[in-house]
Write a structure and sequence with these properties.
Layout lengths: L1 H5 L9 E6 L5 H10 L6 H10 L9 E6 L4 H10 L4 E5 L6 H10 L5 H8 L2 H8 L14 E5 L3 H17 L10 H14 L6 H13 L7 H12 L8 H5 L22 H8 L8 E4 L5 E4 L2 H13 L1 H4 L4 H6 L1
Antiparallel strand pairs: 1-2, 3-4, 5-6
Helix pairs in contact: 2-3, 5-6, 9-10, 9-13, 10-13
Length: 325
């Protein structure tokens, strides 16, 4: 009977089954649940098989991918392996910590609050990066990750920071900027870029303004500062928001903001230290992802009048349309 059991599949048709071995669950309970899921034909014989092979205490906590057409030996090997199901999560360039936390929660990998608490744990952030850092914002590298339910927020964040450090090795050293300043500038470039080919031109504008001690006056920093205060995503900017002082609002002070406002990819990081050589001090959106760049405020004002103040220039246009092409 035992030999027949070991050589019998519950079904010839393979139906996928996700089964979780939780902490403290014994062999008998596991065997019974697998029978109910049609992964095994006998809970008693499977329990006996586990004990005879000396594996009663070796079954690992995890979330496992099984099928109804597996032999009992194969089922046991899976739940002994500890190799839980990995779920993909894709973080796009330019997302901030709040957006990534929302994505993390929507992916059923854990809670938004848990993710944000870990990202803003300054002691842990400093341990991971090897320098005093108030938050991991900016260092959550955009990429597709595969994590298990048991790795959770901590496991994902560690992977993201490790991937950042690996990619940052390809970024040239800057004689004028620290790593944190590079990441901060790169995050602004990332948020201002709808057309990838413009990253280094946009970088040149910010470098030129910094050298002249001009305020960067970039809208994404205003939105981020408001978000830091309200914890609510901000989309539109009012005139009074431009004058509202936060440690991120670059309309209210010269230089870089307190820290990154998003998580940049490698192209933005490289653009931050390798700007094009241009005379530009201004740019305005054409509403399609590209920009008009200007050297003088007079030329910039004309471009603003044409592309921003005329409703006909904005109607039906979005830089997001460019990203879909």
């Amino acid at each position: 009977m035992g030999v027949a059991f070991l050589n019998t599949k519950p079904s010839q048709e393979a139906q996928n089954v996700i089964y979780e071995v939780s902490s403290g669950k014994g062999v008998r309970a596991i065997s019974q649940e697998l029978v109910e899921l049609n992964v095994l034909t006998s809970s008693e014989l499977f329990s006996l098989f586990v004990r005879i092979t000396g594996n009663s205490k070796h079954i690992r906590v995890g979330e496992y991918a099984l099928t109804t057409s597996m032999y009992p030996r194969d089922v046991l090997n899976v739940i002994l392996s500890g190799k839980s199901i990995e779920r993909p999560i894709t973080v796009q360039e330019g997302l901030n910590k709040y957006e990534i936390a929302d994505l993390f929660e929507r992916s059923n990998l854990g809670s938004r609050a848990e993710f944000l608490n870990l990202v803003d744990d300054s002691r842990w952030a400093s341990e991971l990066l090897g320098e005093s850092i108030p938050s991991l914002e900016g260092y959550l590298y955009p990429e597709t990750y595969h994590i298990t339910k048991y790795e959770g927020a901590r496991g994902l964040i560690k992977q993201m920071v490790h991937t950042f450090l690996k990619n940052f090795e390809t970024v040239p050293n800057s004689p004028r900027m620290s790593r944190h300043e590079i990441v901060t500038l790169a995050s602004i470039i990332e948020k201002e870029t709808g057309a990838p080919e413009e990253r280094r031109i946009i970088s040149s504008v910010f470098h030129n303004r910094l050298q002249k001690n001009m305020r960067l006056q970039t809208d994404p920093t205003v939105l981020y500062g408001l978000m830091e205060e309200t914890k609510v995503p901000q989309i539109n900017i009012r005139k009074e928001d431009l004058r509202h002082p936060t440690r991120y609002n670059t309309y209210t002070f010269s230089g870089l903001p307190f820290g990154p406002i998003a998580n940049p990819g490698i192209s933005a990081l490289q653009a931050a230290v390798l700007p094009d050589s241009t005379p530009y001090l201004y740019f305005v959106s054409r509403n399609d992802g590209t920009h008009v760049f200007s050297e003088s405020y007079e030329s910039h004002s004309k471009a603003v009048d044409h592309f921003q103040k005329r409703s006909s220039s904005r109607k039906g246009k979005s830089w997001r349309d460019r990203l879909k092409k």
